[in-house]
Design goal:
By secondary structure, the protein is α/β, with parallel strands linked by helices. The protein is 31% helix and 26% strand. Strand 12 and strand 13 form a beta hairpin.
Amino acid sequence: MQETADVLVIGTGTAGFTLALACRKGGRQVAVVDDKPYGGTCGRNGCEPEKYLMQAAQVVHLTRQMSGQGITVPAAMDWPALIRSKSAFSNGVPERTELAFQQAGIKMYFGTARFLSPETVAIGSETTVRAETIVIATGARPAPLDFPGAGLVVETSDFMEMKNLPRRVLFIGGGCLALSFGHVARAAGADVTILQRGERVLKNFDLEMAQLAAKAARARGINIVTGITAAMAEKVQGAFMTYGKGGCTEAFPSDLIVNTSGRIPDLDPVDPEAGAVARSAGGVTVNEFLQSVSNPRVWAIGDACDSPYLLSTVADMEAEVAADNILNGNRRRPDYQGVPSMAQAQPPLSFVGLTEAQARQSGKKFRINRGSTDSWPSSRRIGQQGGFYKVLIEEETGKILGAHLLGQNAGETINIFALALKFGISNRELRQVLWTYPTFISDVKDMIE
């Protein structure tokens, strides 16, 4: 069966969803296709359910750290009940996504899409679609592990569906996913080990702040082992044994091994080469308008695109930009200024802008406001220990170059700094704002003096 479309969107996650609806609203005949349940990773088995689990872990930890402040029965996590609740939260995503497409008049296909030519895509074995514009929004997939016994390792999506949590959990990889799910498993009572091949965790974060986050994790009983690359896994008498390479003979026993080594663009099933679509390790190679550099009929957005961030907020922004360019000609460029990131650890770690190392490399003249927040009322009232802030301020202008926060509500408070960085608001201007008090955000004034 041969069909046509003005715009064919491959992938129905947050990027594909946003672009498809925008193009349909702009009067184009739009079709979407996905080989997975509609809705993408973020809503079904990514950041949304991850946050759901992490929120529960934060409640457990908060009651524990306040046990000396009038809280007499700290909370405990009922893992099976939590997973049922999380699933009820996320299982409706495909149905809601399909309903939105149906109401918008968008044609839906189900199956694996792959290029047959620069303008034609096959869907399964029976359907081909020739489209004026083809948008690749296939997202990312877990980076594969390549060592004997890698088949024993589960993905984070599997972890979030486990009806019962094993007693010992090993995470391979020391990025945001490892810290987040490590804290969840620890709050649920599991013994947790994070095995990181590099010499530090959270390599994209400021070094000092990453070290403080690791210290906080260890204080909560999480075993972080750095400088060891997983080389083999095997099952021995009902338990998993993971071994490192490079002369490491130590075995790391566990009852569950989870791959948190990162994510890569999910492009292979699409066969970009058959569509004359150039790509790199970071995704489809695009120009400043998010259009393929080798096939002008093709656009790429979200995690499938070779852009600086693998974040749902960035994916939505890129979708809006690409949709505008598809409808009106190339006139908009994605703006990556002031994009905040967060590791959903306990306490959370967030940042926006430059790290200290990057700021020094830039040659800018700046000062650093840094310090512990443990004596602040916002920390004392919840029994928080280990809170820290680090703000980089340009000397001449007072503008925020970077901000790094470790502590309760850091993921919310960082948005104030993101706003300042994006629109060039100086520390003097920020100090004129009368924040609601007492709140975590009102602490901003003490970070930017």
